[in-house]
């Protein structure tokens, strides 16, 4: 069916993609122009992979994974295909997030900097752990055809809520990380004097915030939700049909039985009428 408010959805989708792409570009410009580039040698160049991979995977790709079901031109695709795309995007985001953690721990250990002392690190590591658990839960419960439908129905609201919670937590963590890095890195001139790097990175933070707001708005509009597939029959692992399908089939079979009984009654009545007519003709004769 046609999406309600398609033009509004398209405008917001294009805006989200543009802002998200700009966030990735701004992050690359920041580390390449202001932070001396990228490397993997235990120096600050290795640390620079941390923001690049997080913004690319844990913000931009994760945001696209959240709204992939809302794309109306995919509604004719099978639900299994869309689940696979959703899981694939989330897996890429998780891999990039883990690599970004390796980069920052390597840098801290090489420079003898303590690990896990800031609020940014606590919230960030919590978000990564929850995200991996969310990914595993989604894979084993919703992607593979093993879990019973009753369990899927029970966990689906939790899965949706936790996904949005993790996404919001990631954005908050990234904003904390940007501020923390600028406070530590900008000494002369100081961050408080609004140097060009500070202004540029603050702008990056605003782009990330706007991207998150657009994703949240798109995914919470009920009129843009993927419609249910009316003719799809999901089989349980034991070969049985879902509860809703069974009740629907039972109603249909009930109607068929009722129609058959009515037809049989009408046929019996016609047979009785014919018998009475024949009896009347014989009595007249």
UniProtKB/TrEMBL annotation:
E.C. designation(s): 7.2.1.3
Cytochrome b561 domain boundaries: 15-220
Cofactor(s) the record lists: heme b
Catalyzed reactions: monodehydro-L-ascorbate radical(out) + L-ascorbate(in) = monodehydro-L-ascorbate radical(in) + L-ascorbate(out); Cu(2+)(out) + L-ascorbate(in) = Cu(+)(out) + monodehydro-L-ascorbate radical(in) + H(+); Fe(3+)(out) + L-ascorbate(in) = monodehydro-L-ascorbate radical(in) + Fe(2+)(out) + H(+)
Entry keyword set: Cell membrane, Electron transport, Heme, Iron, Membrane, Metal-binding, Oxidoreductase, Translocase, Transmembrane, Transmembrane helix, Transport
Residues spanning the signal sequence: none
One Gene Ontology CC term in the entry: lysosomal membrane
UniProt-annotated location(s): Apical cell membrane
Domain of life: Eukaryota
An example molecular function term from Gene Ontology annotations: transmembrane ascorbate ferrireductase activity
Transmembrane regions: 9-32, 52-73, 85-105, 125-146, 158-179, 199-219
Membrane protein topology class: Multi-pass membrane protein
Keyword Metal-binding included in the entry's annotation: yes
Region (Disordered): 258-285
Gene Ontology biological process: ascorbate homeostasis; intracellular iron ion homeostasis; multicellular organismal-level iron ion homeostasis; response to iron ion
Assembly with partners or alone: Homodimer.
The protein's name in its UniProt record: Plasma membrane ascorbate-dependent reductase CYBRD1
Organism name: Moschus moschiferus
């Amino acid at each position: 069916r046609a999406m309600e408010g398609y033009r509004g959805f398209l405008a917001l989708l294009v805006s989200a993609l543009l802002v998200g792409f700009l966030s990735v570009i701004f992050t690359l410009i920041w580390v390449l122009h202001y932070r001396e580039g990228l490397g993997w040698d235990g120096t600050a160049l290795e640390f620079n992979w941390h923001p690049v991979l997080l913004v690319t995977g844990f913000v931009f790709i994760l945001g696209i994974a959240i709204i992939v079901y809302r794309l109306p031109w995919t509604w004719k695709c099978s639900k299994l295909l869309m689940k696979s795309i959703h899981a694939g995007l989330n897996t890429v985001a998780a891999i990039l997030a883990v690599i970004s953690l390796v980069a920052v721990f390597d840098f801290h250990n090489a420079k003898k900097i303590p690990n896990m002392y800031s609020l940014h690190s606590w919230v960030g590591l919590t978000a990564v752990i929850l995200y991996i658990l969310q990914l595993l839960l989604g894979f084993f419960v919703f992607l593979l055809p093993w879990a019973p439908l009753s369990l899927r129905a029970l966990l689906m609201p939790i899965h949706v809520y936790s996904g949005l919670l993790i996404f919001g937590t990631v954005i908050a963590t990234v904003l904390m990380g940007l501020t923390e890095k600028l406070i530590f890195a900008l000494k002369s001139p100081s961050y408080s004097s609004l140097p060009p790097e500070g202004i540029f990175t603050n702008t990056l933070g605003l782009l990330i915030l706007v991207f998150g707001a657009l994703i949240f708005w798109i995914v919470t509009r009920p009129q843009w939700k993927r419609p249910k597939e009316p003719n799809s029959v999901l089989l349980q692992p034991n070969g049985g049909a879902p509860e809703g399908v069974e009740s629907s089939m039972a109603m249909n079979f009930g109607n068929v039985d009722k129609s058959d009984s009515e037809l049989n009654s009408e046929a019996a009545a016609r047979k009785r009428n014919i018998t009475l007519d024949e009896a009347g003709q014989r009595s007249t004769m």
